[in-house]
Amino acid sequence: MLLFDYNAEPAGVSHLLESGTEVNVAPDAFVQSPAHLAAHGGHAFFLLWQQQTGANLNQQDWLGEAPIHKAAKVGSLECLALLVASRVSIDLRNNNGKTAEDLAWDFGFLECAQFLVAVKNGQKRENVTQFTCVQRDKDEDLLTDAARQKRTCENKRSTSQKRMKPNGMLTQVLFT
């Protein structure tokens, strides 16, 4: 395949462009897209190019692996960071039920595994924060509505008060 000839020089990329390689088409029987191969080769530059040309970075191959799995298997922290920044799903599981984090641990790439753990924990915190903010907004809306209703009720009630006139006489004033 042409991707194996890829190098970081502009001539390597232009060779792929001239050959008409499509970004989401898997040219072999194992359903390996150019993005899969770039991630497996640790070629973040080519992976970025794939992302910018519209490649599906969550596309799974015959093993159920997406480019994030391939990058984790070879310990390419640069490719993992690019994929995470591209908002790929880090929870995708391959046919064996393994995530990219699991594969990084299995293959001994501790830095990659720790990076994926940190990203996962950050996403959980972000989701909790978003939920809390939405819930807080709803609670504030309810409190605002309750306060508005209370003011309306207070304004509708007629009240009677006694007031002192300047001449010293008491009068009763009815407010509605």
Automatic annotation (TrEMBL):
Membrane-spanning ranges: none
Protein's UniProt keywords contain Repeat: yes
The keyword Lipid biosynthesis is annotated on this UniProt entry: no
One Gene Ontology CC term in the entry: mitochondrion
Protein keywords: ANK repeat, Repeat
Placement of ANK repeats on the sequence: 63-95
PANTHER family per record: ANK_REP_REGION DOMAIN-CONTAINING PROTEIN, ANKYRIN REPEAT DOMAIN-CONTAINING PROTEIN 37
Protein name stated in the entry: Ankyrin repeat domain 37
Organism: Anolis carolinensis (Green anole)
Taxonomic placement: Eukaryota, Metazoa, Chordata, Craniata, Vertebrata
